[in-house]
Design goal:
- The chain crosses the membrane at residues 26-48.
- Helices cover 30% and strands 30% of the residues.
- The chain folds into two domains: 15-59; 64-170.
- The strands form two sheets. A four-stranded antiparallel β-sheet has the order 1-2-3-4, with no helix packed on it. The chain has a four-stranded antiparallel β-sheet with strand order 5-6-7-8, with no helix packed on it.
- The N and C termini lie far apart (77 Å).
- The chain is built from two helices and eight strands.
- By secondary structure, the protein is of the alpha+beta class.
């Protein structure tokens, strides 16, 4: 039996019917869910923009990083080799100035980067002897991948398939 205004005594409140109460609970739950999704999307967007801003300060545009080290390339005058890596229109490019001499600059083309906003992906460099020949090799780091350039005959180059197999067995 439904409670109507006429059957209530003065000063008492009418209770909601169970179906109306369930409807209000469902509307409340859906509203909370939509609010949580909106907050999640806003926080994700804000964090993404903040990371892009941090990368802008750290690497600039186009994304660029540099490294100076003695790698054994034209360093007779005591100047280290200067290495520059950049993400230039979605392609990693390395510029090597052997012994700091710009007249002998070499360019190494790296991998192309595919996907949305990949022109903003930082590329970094590191040096490590990967093949055990006592010459430091160049490592290009892009996202979670690493490209090895072996230091052979006074220049950096990609490994041959046999060298690549040896590197893969050495890293296991």
């Amino acid at each position: 039996m439904a409670i109507t205004q006429k059957t209530l005594r003065p000063g008492t409140r009418a209770r909601l019917q169970p179906t109306t109460q369930r409807l209000y609970s469902a509307v409340y739950a859906v509203t909370l869910l939509l609010a949580a999704v909106a907050i999640y999307l806003f926080v994700s967007l804000a964090l993404g923009k903040a990371q892009t801003l941090i990368d802008d300060f750290r690497y600039g545009r186009p994304r660029t990083t540099q490294l100076e080290a003695f790698v054994g390339h034209n360093e007779a005058q005591g100047q280290p080799t200067h290495l520059l890596a950049m993400n230039l229109n979605r392609q990693a490019v390395i510029i090597e100035l052997p012994g700091g001499d710009a007249a002998k600059a070499r360019t190494i083309s790296g991998p192309y980067l595919f996907g949305a906003n990949e022109d903003l992906t930082p590329v970094t460099l590191s040096l490590r002897d990967m093949d055990g020949d006592s010459n430091v090799d160049l490592l290009l780091n892009v996202r979670n991948e690493q490209v090895v350039y072996l230091n052979k005959n006074g220049e950096f180059r990609l490994p041959t398939p046999a060298e690549q197999a040896a590197l893969a067995q050495g890293n296991r």
